[in-house]
């Protein structure tokens, strides 16, 4: 006979406990499948060696048993490394941090003419857009300046990189891919152009956005009256510099009538791109420049006058843009900013300064960094390493941080937006987690926060380093789904105790 309760029927948990007491064999038959077992089963289906997989799942604000697999082994994390860089930036730079790009002159304004050079002093702004540059130059026009009788001097010395930055050994076959753009103090508009083409009865018309001074399109596309519209990778874009100093971008391919194509490309050095963009915008505003475009240093004395400033959005906004869409270019700017803002004389460059700064920050939190390897803070690296336990520990600290809301909100929502928008929709988990993804050849990874059915938040980390990783997202998604179901397992274990 079941016990009688004064306030109604027994709860499901009490009822299950009583049944397990009467029928102890139920405790064996009802034992849940461990969280990691279905994940490993999914890996087995793809013939993934368990040694190529590392995982950690930790309950943060409720009941649950931490789950680990190969958690002390250092793996290449891919883009989940961005979580570390952005979290460090929020705490070390502050959520309201901004980048300020300034224009100075060493000349004087007479009537509508600036007699002297214009100094464009870059700040390493991760997202200095064409629109903001246009507004910056419009301020000069609003001052009554039309003609500049001097040089445009580009100062990108905000970052100390005496030995430059190593190229990423990409395997995508496209050296002009936008994600390969290197960080620079002079970065503007992500150093990207969009080249578009359309075919109609008049022929093929191609154009470039934004328009760049000294850069021309050489359209050699072949028209075709009929045919299927080709994919964008079926076209080639080849930059070359002529004897006149102008840059020509040759466009080749076949485009049938009624078809359009568009490609985003990084074809120029950052300084060349920024100089060309500034002059092009200045001309669109009706201005002229009689001098040269060159790199140089803004004099650090009283010989120049500040004319105009453009300030970025706050760091919180930048972090959201970085993590939602895994922007490599922007996060590398942030990483170098961490170095530049914390530079010490003993640092070889700002990459070394950023590495030291982040490790000191981790040490203050008690996070072991012994297996970690930083290269650029983006995960766009064959060298970067971290263990699942270290990443999970860092997520624990992020959960407790005063800026936890800002960081968590920057991570893609499961089955809703960012790089997670098309994942786990089948599991009715839309919005149940904030998960950063990572992807390289032979690397797939996740790191972030998700909830179980009792609304306990878990930190979850998983990395796959294997030749079959490209098709293994289902394994990572299985971990998120099983953590979501962990509350059911906890209920059964509690009832059986």
Put the structure in a nutshell.
The protein is α/β, with parallel strands linked by helices and 497 residues long. The chain folds into 3 domains: 15-19 and 34-95 and 316-496, Beta-lactamase (3-Layer(aba) Sandwich); 100-164 and 271-312, D-tyrosyl-trna(Tyr) Deacylase, Chain: A (3-Layer(bba) Sandwich), CATH 3.50.80.20; 193-265, no CATH class.
How does this structure look, described?
This protein has 3 domains: 15-19 and 34-95 and 316-496, Beta-lactamase (3-Layer(aba) Sandwich); 100-164 and 271-312, D-Ala-D-Ala carboxypeptidase C, peptidase S13 (D-tyrosyl-trna(Tyr) Deacylase, Chain: A); 193-265, no CATH class. It is 30% helix and 24% strand. It has helices at 12-22, 26-29, 36-45, 81-92, 130-142, 270-284, 315-325, 328-341, 350-365, 388-400, 404-410, 473-484, 486-496, and strands at residues 53-59, 67-69, 74-75, 100-105, 108-110, 113-115, 118-121, 147-149, 152-155, 193-200, 203-209, 215-219, 222-224, 236-241, 247-252, 254-256, 260-265, 288-289, 293-295, 305-311, 386-387, 433-440, 443-451, 457-465. The chain has a 5-stranded antiparallel sheet with strand order 2-1-24-23-22, with helices on both faces. A 5-stranded mixed sheet has the order 19-9-7-4-20, with helices on one face. It has a 4-stranded mixed sheet with strand order 5-6-8-18, covered by helices on one side. Strand 5 and strand 6 form a beta hairpin. Helix 3 (36-45) runs antiparallel to helix 12 (473-484) and helix 5 packs across helix 6. The longest helix is centred in the last third of the chain and has 16 residues, at 350-365. The two termini are 21 Å apart. The model is unreliable at 1-33 and 491-497 (pLDDT under 50).
């Amino acid at each position: 006979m079941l016990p009688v309760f004064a306030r109604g029927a027994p709860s499901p948990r009490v009822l299950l406990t009583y049944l397990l007491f009467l029928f102890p064999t139920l405790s064996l038959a009802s034992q849940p499948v461990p969280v990691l077992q279905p994940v490993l089963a999914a890996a087995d289906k793809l013939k993934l060696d368990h040694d190529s997989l590392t995982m950690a799942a930790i309950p943060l604000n409720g009941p649950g048993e931490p789950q680990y697999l190969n958690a002390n082994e250092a793996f290449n994390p891919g883009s989940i490394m961005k979580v570390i860089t952005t979290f460090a930036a929020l705490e070390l730079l502050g959520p309201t941090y901004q980048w300020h790009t300034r224009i100075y002159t060493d000349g004087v304004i007479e009537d509508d003419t600036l007699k002297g050079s214009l100094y464009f002093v870059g700040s390493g702004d991760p997202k200095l857009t064409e629109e903001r540059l246009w507004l910056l130059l419009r301020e000069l026009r609003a001052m009554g300046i039309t003609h500049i009788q001097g040089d445009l001097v580009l100062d990108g010395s905000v970052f100390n990189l005496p030995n430059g930055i190593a190229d990423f050994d990409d395997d995508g076959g496209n050296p002009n891919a936008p994600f390969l753009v290197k960080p620079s103090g002079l970065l503007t508009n992500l150093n990207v152009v969009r080249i578009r083409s359309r075919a109609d009865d008049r022929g093929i018309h191609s154009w470039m956005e934004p328009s760049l001074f000294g850069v021309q399109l050489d359209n050699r596309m072949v028209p075709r009256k009929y045919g299927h519209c080709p994919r964008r990778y079926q076209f080639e874009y080849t930059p070359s510099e002529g004897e006149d100093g102008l840059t020509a971008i040759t466009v080749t391919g076949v485009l049938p009538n009624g078809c359009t194509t568009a490609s985003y490309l990084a074809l120029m050095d950052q300084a060349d791109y920024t100089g060309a963009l500034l002059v092009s915008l200045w001309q669109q505003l009706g201005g002229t420049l009689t001098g040269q475009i060159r790199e140089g240093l803004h004099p650090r004395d009283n010989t120049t006058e500040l004319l105009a400033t453009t300030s970025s959005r706050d760091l919180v906004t930048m972090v959201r843009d970085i993590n939602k869409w895994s922007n490599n270019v922007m996060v590398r700017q942030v990483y170098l900013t961490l170095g530049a803002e914390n530079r010490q004389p003993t640092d070889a460059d700002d990459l070394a300064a950023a590495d030291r700064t982040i490790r000191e920050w981790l040490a203050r939190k008690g996070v072991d960094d012994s297996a970690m390897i930083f290269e650029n803070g983006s995960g766009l690296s064959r060298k970067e390493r971290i263990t699942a336990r270290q990443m999970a520990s860092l997520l624990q600290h992020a959960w407790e941080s005063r800026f936890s809301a800002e960081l968590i909100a920057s991570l893609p929502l499961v089955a809703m937006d960012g790089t997670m928008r098309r994942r786990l929709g089948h599991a009715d988990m839309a919005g149940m987690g904030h998960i950063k993804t990572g992807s390289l050849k032979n690397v797939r990874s996740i790191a972030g926060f998700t909830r179980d059915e009792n609304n306990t938040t878990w930190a979850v980390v998983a990395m796959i380093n294997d030749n079959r990783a490209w098709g293994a997202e289902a394994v990572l998604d299985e971990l998120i789904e099983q953590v979501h179901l962990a509350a059911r397992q906890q209920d059964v274990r509690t009832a059986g105790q």
